[in-house]
Amino acid sequence: MTKRITCRRVYEDVSTDDGQRVLVDRVWPRGLSKEAARLDEWLRDVAPSTGLRRWYGHEPARFDEFRRRYLAELRDAEHQPAAGRLRELAEHDRVTLLTATRDLDHSQAAVLARWLADGPA
Known about the structure:
By secondary structure, the chain is α/β, with parallel strands linked by helices. It has one domain. The chain contains five helices and four strands. Strand 2, helix 1 and strand 3 (41-42) form a beta-alpha-beta unit.
């Protein structure tokens, strides 16, 4: 089965193509009710650590280093249960990784989508 993993902003309208809608931010998105988000899961523990998130600051020039550090974090015991759950979802259904970040190409959701598509490392 071909994995279908996409990334979207959590503020966008729900699509019938979304499959499982999974929020991958550590912090709940501002101004969004839980009902409006229409999530299947919120895997906050798969998000980058607070320290890494603050260091990165969504600066595209730091993205390559952010990706390297974040992938290392995903191998840590703290992230393993949530990372395993995300892999499990991706094996059985379409998954849309949701984030509040405006720049999807330079987000943890983009890193996770590639990580899921590439399979176990």
